[in-house]
Specification:
The complex is a heterodimer of chains A (672) and B (74). By secondary structure, chain A is α+β, with helices and mostly antiparallel strands. Chain A is built from 19 helices and twelve strands. The two termini of chain A are 29 Å apart. The model of chain A has no long low-confidence stretch (mean pLDDT 85). The longest helix of chain B is centred in the N-terminal third of the chain and has 36 residues. The chains are: A alpha+beta (672), B mainly alpha (74). Chains A and B meet through helix 15 and helix 19 of A and helix 2 and helix 3 of B.
Chain lengths: 672, 74
């Protein structure tokens, strides 16, 4: 159902404006309206409130402080102890009396305490990351470099060559001798399975020519950090190794120091983050309000049961200087009223549907309860299997467990997990009706099949026109009994009549409530047409003795229905009424998809059984299990989508009116 | 009617409608995938749009099953 909303107007002295705004934010129930977009004589004399330069400056300062505070917060790990909401609230309240200068100096103090440590931590992390890149190279080249003793006039270059190209080193050595007039030495060794390392030592005066030569030959040179590039290889590598050993303990110490700071400051920083975000949001909302002379005007919507509380709080706090009045909304204003859903816990998971489409418009009926009734029925009818239901139940509990562990949870998946939980129960109930447990596994084990391979009816409920019994278990693959197929088709059509009929009744009630005669007549026409079809087919397939009466009565109902729908909705309405027959047939998918699922399950069992006895049984079980897993995956996906489709296309299109105005109360943001 | 003709009739009813559904869904699916990349909030509409042509195969299935219920000679 939808929460009943009241349109409210809050008028008060301008001097109290910010205190009122803070109070409203604390109350967290008012959905603000933009008064500048309001039309009509009531708002003609009102001017929009403006952000004067002082307020603009305040907002800039707040944004700057928020940015600096958040930057510090992002560097601190939360303390090990559990932080309670009450602690943050207490701290938050302590900011409310403080001036911006106080808060500014507090942020400066935070920065002073942390800036040096944070900068030092960053430096160490950057250096560690940079030097770590040299680590694998060092490990390869260092044993060789330690053998090289370079003098002042000599420099060196290290090369890494793939093992399969090691002959290239001979070529390089020859070329180097030519360039340097034999004032060079090459040390090389295999350093691992695939790599050969080499160090070329040569006189400094040939440095440029050697580097040019190596560049043109596209040889993989080992480059050292710039600050070490002048040093001989062995020294440079030694220094890198020393630094790599020194950094981790230093980093550990800095992190410990920051953790100590976090212990003292974390609650303050989080509370300040929330406080600053709320102040900024308040200032951002200012242009939505109106002003006139000495007073400000705020308009919006709040749940009707919260109006009295808001009025009392404002009265007590501002001693009559601020007044909240409940307005009677005009028809146009009602069109813009925000929607807020409030459903019982069992129905709430089905609100997931409003993450796929917009929620229902205010003043119309919330169809969540209809989805909550029919979605599981449609799902269960298709995936009616006790074994699959148990697997689905297990998967849902696993999904919920995984979701609980995640920090950022998706509301959609949380709701949908509960939907699947309810659907698995429905699937089990239908599975019991069909007596299906991983297809016909239980039937096979109990030997409830006749010589032709058809299920034996254990509890006869009646006989079809061809004289064959039907009852429990209700066989879905009714090849031997085509009348049973007809019966199941009638059942799905009846489910469709109930589903669509409920939607049409909602549409009819909606039309009557809004005094929209044509809308109501259109829906009544559809309903009459559908009921006419039920009467006609009731005579054809049901009570045949009264066929002569039901046929004309049903036909008249259907024709009158089309007429009424045409009167209410024009040519399109009349056509739509006739097409409702197609909507009803669409429910045959319930049977079709269910049939596909059960046939695949039986194929899995049959294939498993084909492997025969002995050691092959194990293989048969694996084959059957794999096919069942595939069938479960398809069996969950397809009925979910088809149930969704039947709700959205066959049911919702008959009455649903959506809106994009969702109730968003002006409240503390929680720092977001 | 001959049993073979009944079987062919049923196969055509379900087969052709399945092809039609598949072809429509491929067109709609590709268009909706493009639309979703731009506007993820259209997910609900996408499901509806893609699921609409399925009515064809469902009707084909019903007709197919009804045909198989016919007895040779009827």
């Amino acid at each position: 159902m939808l929460l009943t909303m009241s349109k409210v107007e809050i008028v008060g002295l301008k001097s109290l404006f910010f205190q009122v705004l803070e109070t409203l934010q604390d109350l967290g129930t008012l959905h603000l309206e933009d008064i500048t977009k309001k039309k009509g004589p009531r708002y003609a004399d009102l001017l929009p409130m403006e952000m004067d330069p002082a307020l603009e400056e305040e907002r800039n300062l707040l944004q700057n402080l928020a940015m600096r505070n958040n930057a510090i917060l992002s560097e601190l790990a939360p303390p090990d102890r559990r932080i309670t909401r009450a602690e943050i609230e207490e701290k938050y309240k302590s900011f409310q009396g403080k001036t911006l200068a106080d808060i500014s100096s507090m942020v400066e103090e935070e920065e002073k305490a942390t800036r040096e440590l944070i900068n030092y931590k960053h430096e160490l992390e950057v250096e560690l990351s940079r030097l770590s890149k040299y680590e694998p190279i060092i490990k390869k080249v260092y044993p060789l470099a330690s053998k090289v003793t370079a003098t002042e006039n000599y420099t060196s270059v290290a090369l890494l060559v793939e093992e399969r190209y090691k002959q290239v080193l001979d070529y390089i050595e020859k070329e180097l001798e030519k360039i340097t007039n034999k004032q060079c030495e090459v040390f090389s060794a295999r350093v691992d399975e695939n790599t050969h390392a080499a160090i070329l030592v040569f006189h400094r005066r040939y440095s440029e020519q050697v580097h040019n030569f190596l560049a043109t030959e596209n040889v993989n040179q080992v480059r050292l950090p710039s600050e070490l590039s002048d040093k001989p290889y062995d020294e440079a590598l030694k220094e890198i190794e020393t630094r790599l050993n020194e950094i981790p303990p230093k980093l550990k110490k800095v992190r410990e120091d920051l953790d100590k700071i976090s212990e003292d400051w974390y609650v303050t920083l989080v509370a300040l983050k929330e406080y600053l975000a709320d102040r900024i949001e308040s200032l951002n909302a200012i242009p939505k309000f109106g002003q006139s002379g000495h007073v400000f005007v705020i308009t919006g919507w709040m749940p009707s049961d919260k109006v009295e509380e808001a009025r009392r709080v404002l009265e007590e706090k501002f001693e009559g200087k601020v007044e909240l009045t409940e307005e009677v909304p005009t028809h146009e204003e009602l069109e813009e009223a925000p929607t807020a859903l409030k459903n019982p816990a069992a129905v709430r998971p089905f609100e997931f549907i409003y993450m796929l489409i917009n929620p229902p418009k205010y003043g119309h009926i919330d169809p969540t309860f209809l989805v909550a009734i029919f979605f599981p029925i449609l799902f269960g009818f298709m995936l009616g299997d006790m074994g699959y239901a148990l697997v689905l139940l297990g998967a849902v509990f696993l999904m919920k467990r995984i979701l609980r562990k995640r920090e950022s949870r998706s509301l959609f998946f949380e709701l949908f997990a509960n939907v699947l939980l309810i659907c698995s129960i429905s699937s089990f109930v239908f599975g019991l009706l069909y007596f299906e447990f991983f297809g016909d596994l239980l039937i096979r084990l109990l030997g409830w099949k006749d010589a032709a391979g058809h299920m034996v009816v254990k509890w006869v409920w009646g006989h079809t026109s061809s004289g064959k019994p039907w009852g429990w278990p209700l066989e879905r693959i009714a090849q031997a009994n085509p009348d049973l197929f007809k019966l199941l088709l009638i059942v799905v059509a009846l489910i469709g009549v109930l589903h669509m009929g409920s939607a049409l009744v909602i549409g009819l009630i909606d039309g009557i409530r809004h005094r929209d005669r044509k809308h109501a007549l259109e829906k009544l026409g559809y309903l009459l047409f559908v009921l006419g079809l039920v009467v006609i087919f009731g005579g054809v397939w049901g009570i045949k003795s009264i066929k002569s009466v039901t046929m004309p009565v049903g036909a008249v109902m259907a024709v009158v229905g089309i007429g009424l729908a045409g009167y209410g909705g024009g040519f399109g309405g009349g056509l739509e009424a006739a097409l409702t027959f197609g909507n009803l047939l669409s429910y045959a998918r319930l049977y079709g998809i269910g049939l596909a699922s059960v046939i695949l399950a039986e194929v899995a069992n049959e294939l498993g059984a084909e492997f025969g006895g002995g050691a092959m049984v194990f293989l048969g079980v694996i084959v059957a299990a794999l096919l069942h897993v595939l069938n479960i995956a398809l069996g969950v996906l397809s009925p979910s989508i088809q149930s969704l489709r039947l709700n959205l296309v066959e049911s919702f299109t008959k009455f649903y009116k959506e809106t994009d105005v969702v109730y968003k109360p002006f409240k503390r943001s929680g720092g977001e | 009617m001959e049993l073979g003709l009944i079987a062919i009739g049923a196969a055509l009813a379900i087969g052709l409608s399945a092809l039609a559904t598949g072809w429509s869904q491929s067109k709609i699916g590709a268009a909706m995938a493009g639309a979703l990349a731009e506007k993820p909030e259209l997910a609900g509409n996408a499901i509806i749009m893609i699921a609409i042509p399925e009515t064809m195969v469902v009707l084909g299935f019903v007709i197919g099953f009804l045909i198989t219920g016919l007895k040779p000679g009827e």
